Structure formats: structure tokens, C-alpha cells
Amino acid sequence: MLTYLSGARLAGVVETPRERSLRRYRQFAARDPRVLLGIDPQGAWGEPELLGLMARRCGVSADPRQRSGPDVIDPARTLAALDAFAERLAVAARRHAPVLFGTGHPRSLLGFYATLADALSAAGCEVLTPAGGRCVDILTQFGLRTHRIDYVRRVALVRETEGGRPGCEPGAHCHSPLPVRVVLEAAAAAGGPLPELVVGDHGWLCGAGQLGFEAIGPADSDDPAPFVGQAEGAVRVVVPLDDGVRSSHYLPLTRYVLKRACLSQ
Asked: Record's Pfam families (predicted)?
């Protein structure tokens, strides 16, 4: 698996530019809400502290003088986090726990989550789908846009709407924690079960963790928020990997996680 992670550019030398990672670290240090992803950091996370954290958790270079070129994610750290991720899925399966899946990276990660959702459902977990069809206004680089919460194979995502019609297929790239907040509020208002585990990325991961839900998921080297959340106890497991490669590249990871969690596909 270590060799595969590097060969598929999921870890090792990845496509994420070092310049973008350092820019995101600066933005996080300035508490820019666009990169907080729903995390409310309690510590004094300046740029040096963030670079040190990302070096420890991801394996990126800790040298602040390295300011260009591709980022590097340590495959061994990715594999160790995948094992912890699988262990938490196994616990949920044994408990027949209600779970929620959501992604801000539908083009790359939807299949990964959907297969895990199918496996947990087969193991007796209820995969929750509250607030489908609800709308939420999200601030994007193009301004405030209305998005609709949707579910594909029981994985939550958002679609930008224009005149009430879907504007993005299979879903929008989204960093905002607002969708998961709407989903969790809807689940609570309906009086149904709340998730014992949330599996996702970006705002789904950080937003749920900040609200006190156990949350696990992947994060790239240019997204410090999940790793800060993990360091401060808001997020349970973060898997460092490139979250934007071809969806087919995640299939071996899916098989690995299912095997480690003793779940059938």
C-alpha cells in the first residue's frame, strides 16, 4: 500500500503546490473563515506552529525557506491514519451506530464514501440522509450563492442552484461548514437519530467535529483546519492524502479500509 500511495500520487510527492499550502497556513493564522472550515481554534496557531503541525501530521517540509514546488505527504503517516480510520468504522459497525457521510469533493471522493456507506449499511448501521432538498447560502469566490443539499448513494453534497435548477454535477466543490450544520439541525428537529459518527472532508468533517460529533476523514496538505481540529480534540481521525486525484485512484484505499475494518463491500 505504501508503494501504491506514492505511485498514485495520493501521498509522497503530490500535486498540491507548496505555495498554495503556505498561503492557506497564512490565511488560517489570520483566522480567515474561508480556510477555517468550521473549526474554532483555541490555540495560538501562527504560521510557524501550523507549519510544524503539518510537518508532524502530514510530513510536509518543516523548512519555511522552501516556498515552491510540489508538496510532500509521508505515505507512512497516511497508512497509519487509514488504519485508525478503519478501526473507527469497525467500532461503528459493531455498535450498529447511525452514521452520516458528506463531501465537499464529490468528483473525487464520492465513490470512496458511497462504498463505505454501503458496507456500514450492510453491517446494520443506519446511514442518515436528513435535510435533503434544503437550501443554504454559501459564500464562494464568486459571491454569495444558493446551494441545495442533496444525497447521492446516501452521501451528502451540495449543488449550486440557478433559478431553482441544479447548476453543478455531480456536486459542488465546497469548503463551508454550513451544510453539515443544516443537516444536523434538521436531524435533531425531526427527533430521529443523530449520527454517532460523521465521515467526510472539508466543512463536513470540521463542522461536525466542532459541534461535538465524532468525525473522521481525509485532508490535503493545504488544509490545516482538520489537523488543528485533531490536535485540539475536535476531530477524531484525519487521513493526510491528496483529496483531488481521479476517483478511481481511491478504489484500492477503499478495499484496504474495508479489509482492515472487517467489512464486506
From this structure: Phosphatase
Write out pLDDT tens, residues 223-265.
Answer: 999 999 999 999 999 999 999 999 999 999 999 999 999 998 6
The beta strand positions in 133-214, using DSSP E, are: 135-140, 143-152, 155-162, 165-166, 197-200
Cell of 234: 475536535
Q: From residue 56, give the alpha-carbon distance in Å to each of 42, 73, 227.
A: 19, 10, 10
Written as nine digits, the cell of 13 is 510527492
Find all residues with CB under 8 Å of 177, minimum gap 6, and list them: 37, 38, 203, 204, 206, 207, 210
pTM over 0.90: yes
Cα(212)–Cα(242) distance, integer angstroms: 26
Distance CA 228, CA 242 (A): 18
- Which of 116-125, 170-179, 201-210 shows the lowest mean pLDDT across its residues? 170-179
Report the 10 Å Cβ neighbour count for 207: 30
Rounded distance between C-alpha atoms, residue 73 and residue 59, angstroms: 5
Q: How far apart are CA 47 and CA 21, in angstroms?
A: 11
Whether the per-residue pLDDT at 172 is higher than 70: the answer is yes
Residue 177 CA to residue 158 CA, distance in Å, equals 11
Residue span of the structural domain in which 7 resides? 2-260
Within-domain flag for 62: yes
**Does residue 265 form part of some domain?**
no
Euclidean distance between CA atoms 171 and 244, whole angstroms: 14
Report the number of distinct structural domains present in the chain. Answer: 1
